[in-house]
Each structure stands twice: as structure tokens, then as C-alpha cells.
Amino acid sequence: MDKSLWEVMQSGGVAMWVIGACSILAVAVAFERLHSLWGFLDKARSLADTVNRCVTRGAFAEARAACERSRSPVADVFLVGFERHGRVPEAQVEAAVERARVRMNLDFRRRLWVLGTVGAMAPFVGLYGTVVGIMGAFQSLKGAKGENQLDIVGPSISEALVATAAGILVAVVSVAIYNWLSAHMQRVALEVKLVTEEFVENLKDAGKPATTPATSDKSAAGDKAAGKEAADGDRKASRGE
């Protein structure tokens, strides 16, 4: 017999309402996480390329302005480095950028536990609804003498099994989405780690004085003259002069 969704929810009892609420919650979390990750890597790579080019040529103000205009979460990580560059030692700059990166990764994984919880809990909620429904079906057999017992308990048992089927379906979908998001977030975390390490390296190189060829030649000539003077002094000392 065809039934509407409302009738199925009512026939499943409390368990079906719990499963329905879990499914709505899981779908909401999945869409929210998918929306936050949509196009994240493309935006992060584009911003990292712009910032690294600017830092390489010493245009820190331009690089910082690009981060302030960007809507990518990676921009906040870069801004932490810009705020501390030149004010604190390089080790502290690197540590601050790393903390910001870890904090961003934690923000990406927030509410992901909801999908894992729904995936683990939904089958047991469905099984609970089925057990309760079957117990109610057998309770209806009391006093039903001379009647076809299968006709009495059959519809009740079939309705009770709906809760188990619904719980398994919600669990399978939730676990699949959870695993996909976890794998994608691991890739995002690795990409962010790479771009932040490159950013920190460029900051360090930008803070070091450039060595020109003329300076190098003068330094080499000075070292050569000093070595010659030392050799002459040794020869004179050996002759007793």
C-alpha cells in the first residue's frame, strides 16, 4: 500500500523522527562544508602566486594589499607573517604563520564530526525503532484468537522495518560524505602547508641583504691581499728579518 512520507514517519514512531532530524542535520553540514571548500584551492594558489611575486621584488605593501582584498582564508595566514616581519626574529615569524595555518585547518574541520556521528548512530536508532515496532506487533496478538496472526502482525512488522532501512540509508550517505570531505581536507591542508612554507622562505630571503658582484669581487680581493701579506710575514720571520 502506497503511503505518504508523513504516514511513513508516523508509522516508524520516535525512531523515524530522530532519523529524519539526523538526515536534515547531516545534509546541512555537508552543504555548509562543501560551500566553504568550493574553489578554495584555486583562490589559495592565485593569492600565493601574487604575494610571492610581490615579496620577491620587495613590494611588501602591494602584497599586503592583495591579502587584505582577498576573501581566501589563506590571506589571514599571510597577514600574520606580514605583521611580524621585521619586528621579531625569523623563527617567531615562522612559528606565528604555522599557528595561523593550523588554526585555519581546525576551522575547516569544524562540524565535520556531525557527519561521523550520524553515520555511526543512525543504524542503531533504526534498529531500536524496529525492535520497538515488533514488540508492539506481538503485543497486538493478545486476545486475537481464531484470527490469522500473520495478517495481524505482518503490516506492523513491515512498518517497523522501515526504521531500520531508513537508518542504514542515512548512515551510508553520511559516512560517504564524511570520508570524501576528510580526504579533500587532507589535500587542502597539504596545499596550504606548501604555499605557507614558500611564503615564509620568501620573507626570509627578502629580509637578507643582497650580495652584488662588485661586493663579492672586493671581498675576494681583500681576502687575497690578506693572504699574501700573511705569507710575506711568514717568509720574513723564517729569514730572521
Which features characterize this protein?
241 residues; mainly alpha; 83% helix
Question: What does this protein look like?
Answer:
This protein is mainly α and 241 residues long. It has two domains: 5-206, no CATH class; 213-241. Helix content is 83%, strand content 0%. It has helices at residues 5-11, 14-37, 40-56, 60-69, 74-84, 90-108, 112-139, 149-206, 213-239. α1 (5-11) crosses α2 (14-37) and α3 (40-56) packs antiparallel against α4 (60-69).
Structural class: mainly alpha
Indicate the radius of gyration in whole angstroms. 34 Å
Low-confidence stretches: 210-220
Helical content stands at over 70%
Strand content: under 5%
* SS field, number of helical segments: 9
When the domains are counted, the total is 2
Mean pLDDT: 80
Biggest sheet, in brief? none
Label the overall shape: rod-shaped
Distance between the termini: 121 Å
Summarize the helix and strand pattern as letters: HHHHHHHHH
Task: Give me the count of strands.
Answer: 0
